[in-house]
Amino acid sequence: MNPQTELRVRTLSIHVVTWNVASAAPPPDLSDLLQLHNLNLHLDVYVVGLQEMNCGIMSLLSDTAFEDPWSSFFMDVLSPLSFVKVSSVRMQGLLLLIFAKYQHLPFIQILSTKSTPTGLFGYWGNKGGVNIFLKFYGYYVSIINCHLPPHMANNDQRLEHFDRILEMQNFEAQDIPNILDHDLILWFGDMNFRIEDFGLHFVRESIKNQCYSDLWEKDQLSIAKRHDPLLREFQEGPLLFPPTYKFDKNSNNYDTR
Predict the structure, then answer these.
(1) Other Cβ atoms within 10 Å of 167 Cβ, number
(2) Which residue in 119, 179, 209, 213 could disulfide with 124, CB within 3.0 to 4.6 Å?
(3) CB count, 10 Å around CB of 20?
(4) pLDDT over 60 (residue 150)
(5) Amino acid 7: pLDDT
(6) Which CATH number describes the domain made up of 14-192?
């Protein structure tokens, strides 16, 4: 290499959004969710995963004929910022969208999309996962948005659905590596893991005093990761925010009903 040549390497920045929208229509403004006013961010890719989109028969028929309202909303917001929708996949109430800055488009190859229903013994898509497999600058990337079973007592079922989704992501007849051999796996969604043992009063007080570390020890996903070697391979960001389930609707009040 010529000693006068300057090698410039910039890390690509990906913003991942997951949101159970509970059949609601897009709100007027999602600037905070998309970090549009954060001048310190220089984002290259948006990955948006929604759960519980309106999947009534009339809504599904309309969305088949036209772009669904959420996809249209995100495109309207992100297109003026030079983002282009590069892929999407939907299964009933689950939707996964990928937007990238236009200059990255020549380096993105969509390899496959896949839907894995796990509701009603694998026949119904109210629960399960939707996936997009791509090559990004030569790296194999898997992006998975999932919705796992709810309720405190169904922790084993959540883990079974996780395993089922993972098991279905291999492509024998295509030139795509085993999902666990991908360079990057982004797995997110409404996983429905809960906080065990602690009473509601203790949880509320911990949230009020921002003592989130007291709740980590009884987080079902954290417990599962301590016992499951495969789950330990996934890295979760620091839990510096209150539990996301469940707040009173349209409020910042935690579970008063």
Answers:
(1) 10
(2) 119
(3) 19
(4) yes
(5) 43
(6) 3.60.10.10
